[in-house]
Amino acid sequence: MNATHSLVARTGAVFHRYANPGRFLRLGARLQPWLTWPALALSIAGIVWGLFFSPADWQQGDSVRIMYVHVPAAWLASSGYAGLAVCSLLSLVWRHPLADLAAVEIGPVGAAITAVCLATGSLWGKPMWGTWWVWDARLTSVLVLFFLYLGHIALIRAFDEPQRGYRAAAILGLAGAVDLPIIKFSVQWWNTLHQPDSITLTGAPTMSTAMLWPLLVCTLGFTLGFAAIVVARLRAAVMESRIRAALSARRGRGRAAPDSAHDSDVPGGAVA
Amino acid sequence: MSPQIPALILAVVGRDLRLAVRHGADTLGAVLFFVLAGALFPLALGPSPDLLRRMAPGIVWVCALLAALLPLDRLFGSELEDGSLDQLMLTGLPPALVALAKMAAHWLTTGLPLLFAAGPLAIMLGLPVPVLPVLLAGLLLGTLVLSLIGGMAASVVLGARRGGVLLPLLVLPLATPALIFGAAALDAAQTGLPWQPDLELLGAFLAAALPLCPLAAGAGLRAAVE
């Protein structure tokens, strides 16, 4: 019990190093160009490579090129939610202020990339399966993921007191994480239209390297892009809260001014 | 402390049951909604017996899911407003067990009446009588799951500006597995396939939700009163 407690405390101390908004802003400002520019370069290179220089599939023809957007989007939809769940855990266990803000900012980005995944999948399904949509396990579980993102977005903004919204949304974020293994294993548990994984950590990929390389470049580019957008939104949120605090402090000073006009030794800056 | 815990849980459940009996119309509202919503389908789809028999499992399950949502925003909402939630948290009962007791009360006042209404509704929709035990077994597990997930969502939206609007958005995605397995079991039973695997999966879902949902709901309650 004691050991667990000190472990929690020590891990918390590591996380709390970056709970300081000023320290995060400095780190974020240094990190931002290293995320944004490689993300743009890799995404453009990967998409151009995939669309114009990679071979067409012998069975699917040119429509296989949707893969270079669809697969990275699908990977990010799941891993974005995993990131949201980690932020939820940090928020519930360590009350980490930056994790709360990160959960607010990951939500809309994750929902957007999930929508991209669903839309490209639908566009790919029409020529290949002959239908825009089937109620297949993989498709349905990703749709549920989309709704989980929307619920999280709505819940975290539904409280007048932001702290309450962070707590509530963190509980929901952790509960929704049960959908992630369902998405992952849906193509193995239920044998349906969606094809099983072509790329695994353990086995050799079941696709040609001429297609695999542009796909990996796209995936890396999209992932960096996701991180770049989240970091930019997070920095904007920290700055926004600072501006709001400064404005409310000034309003407080303005209101306090008539009373403290005659005793000028009262420092106005101390008014909360 | 510990010998008091079962008594305290029973006291919380008993209090909710007394409240439900005294406000009988509120309690019956969900069941009436269930029957009415089910009766809308034959009106909208036409009275063809073949079509209705084919769709009956899905209709009964979707209506049960929606009906179980109705009383959720009052599950902890009235307690939060009149301050009795603070007192419940001071009884010495862990928040997770307070939540579990309220979930049990929700099942007794919503899930159990739904089970009684489901049989007649299913027969009116043309579901063959030999399949009824599968429907009721599935709904028994499914309504328990719904009370657990719904209680968790209800605790999480406490104090939100539009909690009632948010609730379906939170509960329905999480409840989809119950709907899928429950309706699939009924479908399998109707076509003569083995229905046990689907009910077993539903049972596994219930077994996972039983410890996790009260814990999450307890965290939600603690956040609501602090």
TrEMBL record, chain A:
* Keyword Lipid metabolism among UniProt keywords: no
Kindly indicate where the leader peptide sits in this chain. Answer: none
Any single Gene Ontology cellular-component annotation: plasma membrane
Cite the Pfam families for this sequence. Cytochrom_C_asm
Coiled-coil annotation reads none
A biological process from GO: cytochrome complex assembly
- Tell whether Transmembrane is among the UniProt keywords: yes
Q: How does it sit in the membrane?
A: Multi-pass membrane protein
Molecular-function GO term, any one: heme transmembrane transporter activity
Q: Which organism is it from?
A: Gluconacetobacter johannae
Spans through the membrane: 34-53, 73-94, 106-125, 137-156, 168-190, 210-234
Q: Which residues form the Cytochrome c assembly protein domain?
A: 34-194
Its name, as the record gives it, is Heme exporter protein C
Alphabetized, the UniProt keywords read:
Cell inner membrane, Cell membrane, Cytochrome c-type biogenesis, Membrane, Transmembrane, Transmembrane helix, Transport
Q: Which protein family is named in the record?
A: Belongs to the CcmC/CycZ/HelC family.
Gene that this polypeptide is encoded by? ccmC
Q: Which InterPro entries match?
A: Cyt_c_assembly (IPR002541), Cyt_c_biogenesis_CcmC (IPR003557), Cyt_c_biogenesis_CcsA/CcmC (IPR045062)
User: Where found, per UniProt?
Assistant: Cell inner membrane; Membrane
Q: What does this protein do?
A: Required for the export of heme to the periplasm for the biogenesis of c-type cytochromes.
TrEMBL record, chain B:
Bilayer-crossing residues are 27-46, 58-76, 112-129, 135-158, 165-186, 201-225
Tell me where on the tree of life, at the top rank, the source sits: Bacteria
Sorted alphabetically, the Gene Ontology BP terms of this entry are:
cytochrome c biosynthetic process; cytochrome complex assembly
Query: InterPro entries in the record, alphabetically?
Result: Cyt_c_biogenesis_CcmB, Cyt_c_CcmB_bac
- Bilayer topology annotation: Multi-pass membrane protein
Tell me, what's a Pfam family for it? CcmB
What are the alphabetically sorted keywords of the record? Answer: Cell inner membrane, Cell membrane, Cytochrome c-type biogenesis, Membrane, Transmembrane, Transmembrane helix, Transport
Does this UniProt record's set of keywords contain Heme?
no
Q: Which NCBIfam families match?
A: ccmB
> Which family, according to UniProt?
Belongs to the CcmB/CycW/HelB family.
Entry function: Required for the export of heme to the periplasm for the biogenesis of c-type cytochromes.
Q: What protein am I looking at?
A: Heme exporter protein B
Which species does the entry assign this protein to? Gluconacetobacter johannae
Q: What is the lineage of its organism?
A: Bacteria, Pseudomonadati, Pseudomonadota, Alphaproteobacteria, Acetobacterales
